[in-house]
Design goal:
alpha+beta, six-stranded antiparallel β-sheet, elongated, 7 helices, 635 residues
Amino acid sequence: MGGPLSSPSDIFAPPFREYLKAILTKLVETVGERRNLLAWDILNELDSDDPVHGWNRTPFDEREVAVNDLAQYLKAIDPNHMVYLSSVRWNPIFTTHLDNVSTMMPGADSALVLNNPEFHLNSTHTYYPDIRDPNHNHPENSGTYLVADLDNTISPAVRIRQGLQFYYANTLTPKPYLNSEAGPLSYYTLEYDRYFTQADDEQIFHNMIWAHLASGEVGTGMRWPGYMLADHALSDRMRDYQLALRHFIEENLDFSGFQPIQIGQHMEVLSTSVPVVKTGITDGRQGIVFLINDERKGTNPPVSGATLRVPKLDPFGEFTFEFWDSHDATRISPTTRIVAESDDSGETRIALPTFSKTQVIKFHKTGSHEPDPPSIGNLVTPELWMRAMIKTEEKGDIEAVWQQGGEGKTAGGHEVIWGYFFASPEDVTWGSRENPDLFVKLWFDTGGRIDVNFFHVSVPDIEVYSDYPFDGSTDQVHTATMERRYIRHYYYPDGRNGVEEKYENGLPPLGHWPTGMPSGNVTNQLRIAAMINTEEKGLVDAVWCLGGENDTSGGHQVVWGYFHASPSDVTWGSRDNPDIFVKLWFDAGGRIDVNFFHVSVPDIEVYSDYPVTNGYSQKGTTILDNRYIRHEYSK
């Protein structure tokens, strides 16, 4: 063409860098103000291995330096437009960093395209076999990509949905995605025939643009029109389909800050035997759904009388669902609307109108029907309620105050919430946020079981309540006392529930003698310590966490906290997964109480010493059947 570059590799060579920057400057000056300019593609198909025009015969490091330099320059001279790289790979695989992997694999190039912070968006060219060569979908044809589809308009949409799932799963730098090339290629398809007609091509285009939109792409993808279309231009019907899509998105969808997740794999079409391809996105407040009657393997009747289950919505939301005719460019309003409510898990079900080929749906949140919180007790999660009532001498029954301490998730996927109830200082003089009366640990097992563990750590009797799933009617109520220190309410997914109670005298169990020598933690000349007998590492030091301390109006002092396993020792160890609660009481009369409350599975050795010496004057082992140990000292 008369330029100084003689081969594709020259474009990456430093001697030609200023020449390329001059070209970019001229481009910006010439077309930079055009309204139809969306973004600059620094280099078309960076990872192309085309034998004539391919770029990737140049070492990767040289290409990376060159495109980054050009991107930085282009952003400096044109800050008003986006900059990106495009990939020719329809199946980018990130493997070139591994040993003994073929250098022909596209991994490093695709990682540069999809995960480079220099670029504003991600872009690939999705020439899947059944998109670039629709004829090979027909059973009367033969070829390496034969899948024997009776209807070759459906598979391209499925490929787009799968591709978007792959790209978002593998993109480390969250950015918008745009498919900047797709369509039948001249290597395979030059003209229409009886297996691939213009009507087929237009329906493929229709299905692909809706699959792009409903899979989370920033637009509808860009069709490479192909040789079968005159002048490489989209047909009038394809333009009509674009116009229908434009009408669809013009109202009731807010794309500012829209960060949806894909829900196609989570949706269900119920009450029909017709197979349906499901594609959808939502951010909880709004979303788009695209459904296709899946006739790849046979002719189906229309989808009729079916129900669509839509998950991942905001809980207790009121939503308007709009059903549109995606083939009608003249329609500027939905064919019908319905209103539906999501439940406490964020799921709703809607009746689908009858459709033969495809159905597009959009929805948006219009309100909330979240129930009022209970007037008494505590809704710890949307479904778990609990309450504690302290039976005081001064005021009779008083409502205990819930204080959540923390929550977390173990490496095994179990969830933990812990905290405590205390008497309000407005009710009794000894009431204080730093004087726990009832420790609580909630365990949400991955198997579905829920344990509500109550540990009495006061003097008055305390009634404990729980309800799951919460319906306003208490499922279980029991009384924790100085003798009945431990109460567990448990719930199973099948609706079964029950209670476990432990009567404790504060003495360690016989036959379990501690053998460790922990370093311990000192408070007011009192040293305490704990060691956990793990299956993984045997006996390990527990980590002390001070919860709080307080002086009561009667001159007593309270110190409380808990021990937990270290995450460096065991996978389930966590600051938000207490293994043994502790309450220390320094009585004004000189008595010291050291109260340990076992709230884990392994045996836990507990130690105390007052005043501090080289050893421990009292020790014991807490186990599942002997959860409470009390050490007493006098000043």
